[in-house]
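Appendix B: complex inputs.
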Amino acid sequence: MDIKVRVWRQAGPSAAGKMVTYDVKGISPDASFLEMIDVLNETLILGGDDPIAFDHDCREGICGACSMVINGVAHGPEKATTTCQLHMRKFSDGDVIDVEPWRAAAFPVIKDLVVDRSAFDKIIQAGGYITAPTGTAPDAHATPVPKKDADAAFEAATCIGCGACVAACPNGSSMLFTAAKIAHLGLMPQGQPERDSRVIDMLQAQDDAGFGGCTNAGECTTVCPKGIPLSLIGRLNSDYRKAITTR
Amino acid sequence: MAVDTPIPKTTKAAGATARPTPPKSVRPSSVVLKLIMAASGALLVFFLFAHAAGNLKIFVGESDFNHYAEWLRELGTPLLPHAWFLWIQRVGLLVAIGLHIWAAAALTIRAKKARPVKYAHRPKVQGSYAARTMRWGGVIIVLFVIWHILDLTLGKVNPAGGDSAPSERVVEGFAPDRWYVTLFYVLAVVAVGFHLRHGIWSAARTMGQQTIKGERRAKAIALTLSVILVAMYLSVPIAVLTGLVG
Amino acid sequence: MTANDFWAEGEPVFDKAAPDGPVETRWERRKFSAKLVNPANRRKLTVIVVGTGLAGGSAAATLAEAGYRVKSYCYQDSPRRAHSIAAQGGINAAKNYRNDGDSVYRLFYDTVKGGDFRARESNVYRLAQVSVNIIDQCVAQGVPFAREYGGLLDNRSFGGTQVSRTFYARGQTGQQLLLGAYQALERQIGLGNVEMNARHEMLELIIVDGKARGIVVRDMVTGEITTEFADAVVLASGGYGNVFFLSTNAKGCNVTASWRAHRKGALFANPCYTQIHPTCIPESGSHQSKLTLMSESLRNDGRVWVPKKAADCPKPAGSIAEEDRDYYLERIYPSFGNLVPRDIASRAAKNVCDEGRGVGPGGLGVYLDFADAIKRLGRKAVEAKYGNLFEMYERITGEDPYETPMRIYPAVHYTMGGLWVDYDLQSTVPGLFVVGEANFSDHGANRLGASALMQGLADGYFVLPNTISNYLAAGPFKKVTESDEAVVEARKQVEDRIEKFLSIDGDRTVDSFHRELGQIMWEYCGMERTEEGLTKAIGLIRALKEEFWTRVKVPGKGEELNQNLEKAGRVADFIELGELMCIDALHRRESCGGHFRAESQTPDGEALRHDDQFSYAAAWEYFGADGKPVLHKEDLNFEYVHPSTRSYK
Ligand SMILES: Cc1cc2nc3c(=O)[nH]c(=O)nc-3n(C[C@H](O)[C@H](O)[C@H](O)COP(=O)(O)OP(=O)(O)OC[C@H]3O[C@@H](n4cnc5c(N)ncnc54)[C@H](O)[C@@H]3O)c2cc1C
Ligand code: HEM
Ligand code: HEM
Ligand code: SF4
Ligand code: F3S
Ligand code: FES
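Resulting structure:
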């Protein structure tokens, strides 16, 4: 199929950027979106142009590296799918496809479609863990975890840290990401001792990193490739309210 | 160029037990702001219901309605001097709306800073429509309230004038030839409805609602309350317009 | 042409750190004999850890907890994205929670046997012992393993074992384990005990006075080259399966860190040992950039077949009658059936495709059919077990596996070879430790499913932190400075190489070279190898190398984010590695573990090992780009598990 892509090109962090249009001819509908850009890049390189920089690694929807806003939607039109798992068969011959980087102050653009998401690591640093120094653990069966809780914790833990939620949120809020981690750890007995400090510290780290506050706009969950539900934000709020009122 | 990095100044060498503590921020956290909005919003909703109920008294009779306005001013007497309750309520409302607007503004400013660049491709809104209109909706409501107070409380922009009885102001204010005023009221009330449909649901989430059942319930309650409120409010101007009252 | 045109043989190499005596107490005794570092002194010691996967992430966190100063590096934008994140199936541990006769000894036994008797008994035993602690550690960190209704951990049986010892978290075990390690690491970063350098690539090792003392890194955002010093260097840079271009590895996986160390003297062992995974989604066209693995657990319920007649292959699967289908694994290996080990399943698939009975594009695929499972268990049950894998398959291929059988084909998945290390995980360069997939590991010639995760975490959490202290006890070492000759030279090597890449300005892209290299490797050094093919491959690779250095085109500058420059460095190293892999494969004239040497087979076409000649690890020494690599053999002795012929029939 033949398509046109309009891609955000920005030479560096402080350079001005603009949308540039490219023709992509004869691309297979079985190619993934990133493979389509690979093909385009090959022609750009041979034509003496700078290829499009974009983040990617696993190309199986699990590492969370890929990050493109496609036609205004983070990770593109297919629900619950990362950019790397999106295939060209979801588009039609002759389409003009807009490709932009994640947009959020906390995720500054480094080059073209590559943004800096280290703010997410800062949030985890502030409390997104269970303190369990190596070698101190009791037998794994010492604390049974109800299957229901374990399953719910797992669902929350599937967040891949891609940042699509931030890219989609009109407030540039990372609430869904933070909430997913709070829920994952807070649903397990191991996570209880640090439950209060975790939510307070992680939320502060999120605010400090320049993310906006959540006003329940609900856009984040619609683009989340792992379908992290909005209800987890309620859970964070509840944990937070309890934490500040009991501390 | 990183040569040997200096030994960190922290004395937290006992890495196994220490925990990183971020310096406390002086800004209220975004969730605290939301809690303030929810609490002040709840108060405002409570007022709206009381106010709407009071308005309905006009159907019982104009004197009842006026009595009610007077009763508002007598409430709490003789414990409180005349009209004190009303003033307490007014101050309460002002504080609530002040906090509400302040929190909304703070969150809006943070949001603008957090999302300075717009996408070139503007997609269809994925979340709810009401969610997107909260800020503008709020501003419209406040502008309306200012007009409304000038109109029905102070009578400044009301044909019946300041010294009239409240019922006169209502009846004359919504007279058919002033249809544009009525239209403005209707629009404002609908705006309130939208604001509350999302607002009440959102407040439930802010307070920690997190279950599937709770979600359904919160949506249903928000919708029901908003529809009831809109209906209660609209009934008055429509009744006046259609001559049912007056 | 004789083999010796390609390599020379040197002195044997010995594992001097390995304790002897009863295998059960070796690790205990090694820990006891290892020197300790006084806690107050640990803060004066710096350790560089390259890589933040299961091995590197857990090592960095644990070393920092112990009080060392750690500098950590990864090429991704966050340590959480290391390739370990992609592991699906699970992690083994000898917990015997199922009371099905499992034990440390049985896990040890299975792993040595699974590795086709090309692994060290001491290491494997230690791995089995430590496996138990890994699960405890991960549970304490909050890793959400699958649980049963009673709230206890669930297990499943996995690829070729008869006990249920695999712990898992849906199909995302690697992700959950890595997030556990990542969170522990982030905690230490927050405490200031680890200096994290994401988007930093190690491009050279710095050896001063014979000891590994630092690395040269490139900041991948600004392009700045810096030299970083430490008392010891740990490489946890993962596997090199990407040498095949099409593999299940992440696009960024590379051999650069290991290869640079190899060029500076670290021996590289068993480079040709690669693992081919039987259940990957087949290639769909020339745009293909990588292959996707589907969990092996699918083979628990799916049945593998191809049409009996080649003429039936293009027909839709549904229209092929039951009696015209060849369930070849069940037919050839009746006792294991669809659950034969990976190497056997892979080669069997290749064989039927070579016979012209493959299905799908290019005839490179076999069916994995769930129709019977759906009939037997119901669609709901199948969905509960494999729902996410089915979804993934549909997303990639556009076909619905509930309706039409999946198509699968083998793909390169894991590399058992890597830098040679002793029992302490120290390479032949003092102070250079290698953990996880980057070392030549505990798996021998083949890896059982669910054991790489185990090894990565065993190395990082439990082994390295105990053994590295023995080395560091002699430190802090003499201060290294920017102006030391070795440092200046290492930096210059990096700068010159970058300069060279950028100046060639040829007419072929880096990817085109990588793709070509991959095709050579897959064709001649993949599942089945022959002397003739390997000799040819070496010639082709040498020609490709020549061409690379004259015709590659790397756009852009060095002082910016330049993904093609990064790739160029990786591909240049892959080309050199590819050559060594072929030489290693050529020299090993036996079929063993993951690879099949056509000249060495039983009359009925099964792999034939030669324990009398090849019971050793082949550790190669680098002798210049045009020199011959030198082979150092490490003899492997089997005191507990005696070599036997694997039979899955
Ligand atoms: C698709 C897939 C599924 C798998 N499933 C299973 C399974 O079910 N069970 C199992 O046991 N095993 C499985 N494996 C194998 C297992 O996942 C890996 O062997 C293991 O995770 C490797 O871990 P590691 O820590 O050694 O390396 P990795 O996780 O690969 O980490 C490498 C690290 O090194 C860094 N790095 C590399 N080069 C450089 C450089 N030059 N400079 C700086 N940093 C660098 C990277 O940034 C990264 O942080 C699977 C593998 C694949 C590919
Ligand atoms: C200038 C005036 C106002 C502005 C700018 C404003 C703005 C907002 C905003 C931005 C929200 C957050 C929406 C969300 O959570 O997604 C909100 C919530 C709310 N508003 Fe208003 N509003 C205003 C006036 C009012 C008034 C007059 C009322 C009452 C009648 C009201 C009741 C509520 C309620 C109940 C909520 C829900 C609180 C929550 O989400 O936690 N608001 N408002
Ligand atoms: C359309 C239906 C409405 C009618 C008929 C109505 C009527 C009135 C009247 C008669 C008063 C004067 C009361 C007095 O002075 O004693 C009043 C005051 C007021 N109304 Fe309304 N109102 C309506 C809708 C609203 C809405 C939608 C809001 C808010 C969003 C609102 C907010 C107020 C406020 C804040 C006051 C001032 C209260 C005070 O003086 O303390 N009203 N209204
Ligand atoms: S919550 Fe969803 S969208 Fe946000 S980072 Fe996690 S996976 Fe990505
Ligand atoms: S879109 Fe943004 S406002 Fe909240 S609900 Fe999602 S984070
Ligand atoms: S590249 Fe890993 S999730 Fe897309």
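The first helix of chain A runs from residue 33 to 46.
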